[in-house]
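Changelog note: in this version the structure field was regenerated for every chain. One regenerated record is shown below for reference.
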Amino acid sequence: MTAPPAPGEWPWSAGFSSLAAERDYRVEDIDGGMPASLRGTLFRNGSGRNDLAGAWFPHWFDGDGMVSAIRFDETGLHYRNRYVRTDNYVNETREGRILYRGFGKMRPGGVLANAFRQPANVSNTSAALLGERLLTLWEGGPPFALDPRTLATLGVEDFGGKIRAFSAHPKLDPVTGELFNFGIDYGRKTTLTPYRIDSGGLTRLPPVSLPYPVMNHDFVLTERFLVFCIGPILANPLKFMLGFSSFDGALHWDGGRPTLILLIPRDGLGPPRFIEMEPFFQFHFANGFEEDGALVLDLARYPDYVAIGDALRNFWRSNFAAGGMAALTRLRVDLSSGAVESRIFKTGPAVEFPRVDPRLVGRRYRYAYIADNPPGRARGLQQRVTRVDVESGATVSHDFGPDGYAGEPIFVPSRPDGEEDEGVVLAFVFDAAERRTAVVGLDARALDAKPLFVARLKHHVPFALHGQFTERLF
């Protein structure tokens, strides 16, 4: 395994080190007590292996997908992790060397070894429970299906050949039970295809032709629309397909073009609508909803792709400098005129991984949970979990410094009919001093108080990206 950087230089970087072992054990090292209401399973997905043959991968998104499952039951916590058995993971593990292209990596052998070869599906970005299957998601291709009980890989899930690309951020409507997602496919035209999954299976909604090839990661679901903010981070498909660069190397920011707000009717009827505004980039939305003839979108907004692109490209040795990183921003789009108003919430710098109460996806809500840093901190991965009252603008934070680095916060309601802030916020926190990870539970109503519990694992979990909590016990 590649040795992590010296802790004094980038103390958070040890959290990117690969974890080769697959573990299965009861967590014994726990401070505090787990609430009786917290029963279920937390699934987390991310790059578990970030290096091979003594060298770091060129990009964080190249890592092999590894799923962690944390079971909360009456006896305590149980941890299990398994790698997704993709071709990339199985074959590169066997050979001990790079065999496939990736988001940033290239096959050895130059242009001819890479031309006309697609990136390998590493299934490393998110996880979504769909019936009796756990889907691991990577938007460049179809998901993999896992057994949620054992995390054994069952195989690729392309819904009977109906999908190619499938985003890492499907949205579940808590009222109708419908699951929506999309995929972007590149060719002579770049098309965005929406999907709806309900009791009748998967339905392809009418595809939308995009004006140019772009990278887009997330969307918002409202009562009537699927909404996208398509920033001008453009791909050069020819450069990539001919083997002259990785997908990451074929991306460039074109600040002379607008960001396009794209509205697609979720019933599949009616044409799409594009609304232009000043250029910006975003990976993730917190939520969105419709009210009084307007569309409200809350997102982690970057001024462009330059700073975040560089940080992801140099992940294990990046300063993660606060300049150019995201701010939690509300856009209010007048649906009659197309006029857009913008409001920035006052949080710490480097906002990412916004989440809300899953019962309020696509509906008016009050609280968003984010990872950010203390005000004035100029560099480093996020060390705080912050709750933002999007009505008043008030914030409250839990700071895990000086050694703790927090991942995506996930809100778990305490009762099905409880208040919006009545619940537990779960997060993985990497301790750079001990070089291991803890599962931490915070009281959503007293986020700045002592954690409800800190469950320390026997090892670190490489920084994960996204996850999902279910009340089902696996």
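Spot check on this record: The CA atoms of residues 233 and 465 lie 21 Å apart. The first strand starts at residue 24 and ends at 27.
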